[in-house]
Amino acid sequence: MADDLIHDPDGGLPRLLEIMRRLRDPATGCPWDLEQDFASIAPYTIEEAYEVADAIEREAWDELRGELGDLLFQSVFHAQMASERGLFDFHDVANTMSDKMVARHPHVFGDESREKSAEQQTADWEAIKAAERAGKAQTGVLDGVAMGLPALTRAVKLQKRAARVGFDWPGTGDVLSKLTEETAELVEARDTLGPEEIEEEFGDLLFVMANLARHMGVDPEAALRGANAKFTRRFKRIEDQLDAIGKRPADSDLAEMDTMWDIAKAEDKARARGGSGRSG
C-alpha cells in the first residue's frame, strides 16, 4: 500500500510524507538523508526560501511551483526528524500554524468587525504577537527576533521593535545626519585603527543604512538584490562588448571597462524610458 502511494502521481501531501518517512527509514532509507540533523538541513532551508523569492522576483512562474515544493520538502524533512525524536510531527506543525492564523485574525474567524483600517489591523496583529511572546516568557522588546535572519532584515526588525516603544529618530533627516556621522567614524577607523574596529564601524554604518531604508519605506534586502541584478546585467554587457572586439575582461583595463559600463548604463536608462533612447 505504501509503495502504491509513493508512485501515485496524485498522492499529494500524504505521498510526500511517506516518501520522507522512507528516506529516513533506518533499515532501507537513503544514507545521506539518514546522516542529516536539524543543523545540517537548516542551510538548505534558508537556500530554498531564497530560491522561492528569486523565482518570484524574476516572475518565473513555471519555476515557482518547483521552488515552493522544495521549500515544502524542507518543512517535511524537519518535521520527520522531530517525529523520530518524539517532539512533534507534520500534522502538529500544520495544526499549530492553523491555530496561530485563526487567533491572529479574529476579524475573519471570530466576532470582531472587519471594518478596520490597515493601521488598526497592524496594531492588533502586533498586540496579539506581543501576547504570544509574553506567553513564551519573551518579555524583552527585542525578544523573538530570529538570529538566523539575513542581517539587514534582522536589523530592520530590531529597529521596528525599538520604534514601537519610542526609541527611534523622528524623521529621515535625523537618520541621514547619523549616516554622515557613521561614515566619518568609518574613515577615521580606516586611517587610525585596526581591522576589528573597521569591521565594527562598517557594521554601524550598515545598521544606519537599514534604518534609513525603514524610514523611507524601502526593503533593504530587495534594494540590494536589485542592485546586484543591475550590476550583473551591466557587467555582462561589458563582457559582450569586449567579446565583440575579441577581448576578455582580463585583457582589458579599468578605463576601457568603465567606458563600456557607461554605455550599458545609458542602455538601461533608455530601456526604462521605453527603449527610444530619448526622454519624453
Short description:
This protein has 280 residues and is mostly helical. It has 13 helices and no strands.
Explain what this protein looks like in three dimensions.
The radius of gyration is 25 Å and the shape is globular. With 280 residues, it is mainly alpha-helical. Helix 2 packs across helix 5, helix 4 runs antiparallel to helix 5 and helix 10 packs antiparallel against helix 11. The chain has 13 helices and no strands. It folds into 3 domains: 101 residues, MazG-like (Helix Hairpins, Orthogonal Bundle), CATH 1.10.287.1080; 79 residues, Orthogonal Bundle (Helix Hairpins); 52 residues, no CATH class. The longest helix is centred in the last third of the chain and has 25 residues. This is Nucleoside triphosphate pyrophosphohydrolase.
Count the E strands. 0
The class by helix and strand makeup works out as mainly alpha
Morphology call: globular
Order of helices and strands: HHHHHHHHHHHHH
Main CATH class of the largest domain: Mainly Alpha
Distance between the termini: 67 Å
CATH homology superfamily name of the largest domain:
MazG-like
Characterize the main sheet.
none
